[in-house]
Design goal:
7 helices; single chain; mainly alpha
Length: about 200
C-alpha cells in the first residue's frame, strides 16, 4: 500500500521549488526576463502549485514534462551551447525531484497527465512566439539555427514536427512512469495472492 506524503512534507517541497523560482527571477537581468517564458518555468510552477493545492494532475503534468521534454532538451541545449548556470541546473533538478517524491506515493498517474505536460510546452511556446525576441529562441518558437534546411523547408513544417515530437516524448514519459507506478502498486506476488 502506498504511503501518502504528509501535508507538511508536500508544502515544504512546494516551497523549495517556489523559493528557487523567486531566487532565479530576482537574480535575472531585467533584460532577460523574457526567459520566464521557457516552458520549464511553467512546469516548475505547475509542480509547486499542484503540491500546495493537492492537484495531482498539475504535479504529474510538470513531472512528465520535465522527464520527457524539459530535462532532455535542456541537457542537449547545454551541450550545444556549453553554458551552465547553477540556477538553471537547480531549476531542472529540484522541481523534477520534488514532483517525483510526490508522485511516487500514488498508485498511478492521473488521467491526462501527458496532455497537461504537453500543454505546459504548447502554451508558453505560443506566448514566446508572440512576445519574445526571435534571437532568444525560447521554446524553439523562433528557430533560427535549423541545421538541415533541405529536410524541412518552411518554419510551419518545423513547428508541426516540433509539436508531434514533443507530444510523443511526453506520452512516452507518462507511459513509462505510469507503468512503474502501477507495477509498484500491484506487485505480481500480491496480485497472485489476491487471486487465490
Amino acid at each position: 500500500m502506498k504511503r501518502e506524503l504528509s501535508p507538511v512534507g508536500s508544502r515544504m517541497l512546494a516551497c523549495a521549488v517556489l523559493v528557487l523560482l523567486i531566487t532565479d527571477v530576482l537574480l535575472k537581468n531585467p533584460a532577460d526576463r523574457q526567459e520566464l517564458m521557457w516552458a520549464c518555468y511553467w512546469a516548475s510552477v505547475s509542480v509547486a502549485a499542484g503540491m500546495l493545492l493537492k492537484l495531482d494532475t498539475l504535479v504529474a503534468g510538470g513531472v512528465v514534462f520535465f522527464a520527457g521534454l524539459g530535462l532532455p532538451t535542456w541537457l542537449l541545449g547545454t551541450l550545444i551551447d556549453s553554458q551552465i548556470e547553477i540556477t538553471s541546473v537547480l531549476l531542472h533538478i529540484i522541481p523534477l525531484a520534488a514532483g517525483l517524491v510526490y508522485i511516487s506515493t500514488k498508485a498511478a498517474l492521473p488521467r491526462y497527465s501527458a496532455v497537461s505536460a504537453w500543454l505546459l510546452y504548447v502554451v508558453p511556446f505560443g506566448l514566446a512566439w508572440r512576445y519574445c525576441k526571435p534571437n532568444a529562441m525560447i521554446n524553439l518558437s523562433h528557430w533560427a539555427r535549423w541545421p538541415v534546411p533541405s529536410v524541412i523547408h518552411h518554419i510551419w513544417q518545423f513547428y508541426v514536427v516540433l509539436m508531434v515530437i514533443s507530444a510523443g516524448m511526453v506520452s512516452a514519459a507518462a507511459g513509462m512512469m505510469n507503468s512503474i507506478l502501477v507495477h509498484r502498486s500491484n506487485p505480481v506476488g500480491s496480485v497472485e495472492a489476491a487471486d487465490h
